[in-house]
Amino acid sequence: MKNIFLALIAIFAFTACSSDDDNQGEEQQISQSHIVEFTTGSLESWVSVGLTTTLTLEDGTESTINSDFDYTQNIVSIEIPENTASFDLEFYIEDSSQAEMRFYGSVNGVNVHQETINQQSYQYQYTFN
Q1: pTM value?
Q2: For 100-127, how does the pLDDT look when each residue is reduced to its tens digit (9 = 90+)?
Q3: What is the dihedral of CA 67, 105, 80, 49, to 10 degrees?
């Protein structure tokens, strides 16, 4: 009876460990790229707008990307690739005009974060699980 009880404990422990390992792998995998965009109203061409993003990839490498503002569409954006572990960004707008920030999945369009910004400099950080 004692051996059967120990065998059952061993089976439950193995099953629990196996399912935990599987779930962790699924949580860490990003199934789509993401977009972060800042949209403004009409701006004069002399108004400086910038977006600097530092990506930390799953392998630990980092890269910094400076995105250019499109004055015809009043938007600046960056695509966050699937193999990204985390990112830090800084948005700058010279005259503190209002901007709409949206962070969403590029395939499913589901918002991760969205807000209105009324400040000259704005920082945002995100870590994928």
Answers
A1: 0.74
A2: 999 999 999 999 999 999 999 999 999 9
A3: 20
